[in-house]
Input
Amino acid sequence: MGIYASRPGRRAGQLLGDGLVLAWVVLWAVVGVVVDRTVSLLAGPARETARTAERIAGTFSDAAGEAGQVPGLGEQLRRPFDSASGSLGDLIASAERTVVVVERIAALTGWLTFLVPVAVVLALWLPRRIRFHRRARAAQAFLDSSADLDLFALRALAAQPVHVLARISPDPVAAWRAGDRAVITRLAEVELHRSGLDLPAELRVPTPAGRAG
Output
């Protein structure tokens, strides 16, 4: 037994539902990426500040090097340039930290934008798919191991709505107790349909004429 029902109608519904869930995941993945990149744009000014400061600091470093070559006055002449270069280094470090913080916030915001709506849908969709698979697999195991459909008929009597049972027999309980194979087969078939399975052709019993179906 796979993850989809053997009945075409039920299988089509499952495929449609799975497709919609997949589309939902892809949609919010795209939205998450867009949010990440949009928030990351806020780091642009800080990144540009760091680049500009690096260029100016490089210019001051070159100037300090040139001033340091003046005989006798080199050390005194280069001090202002070294001081300015050091101050710009602090500005560069601060700007780079700002860029890192903004990028982390952008990544976190993007992931939350993706995960929250996807988690909500998966919390509703995944348990149902898992329950169906377990129920269908268990039903298939019983169906493969025995041709006795009484168990499925009994489950139908316990779980199916009264109007469904009435369409099968005016008194399905009495028919089940009496071993009416036609009624038992119909009851089992209804229960198997709930698990997404078809009743094997070799287990079908023709419905007596005149019985509602």
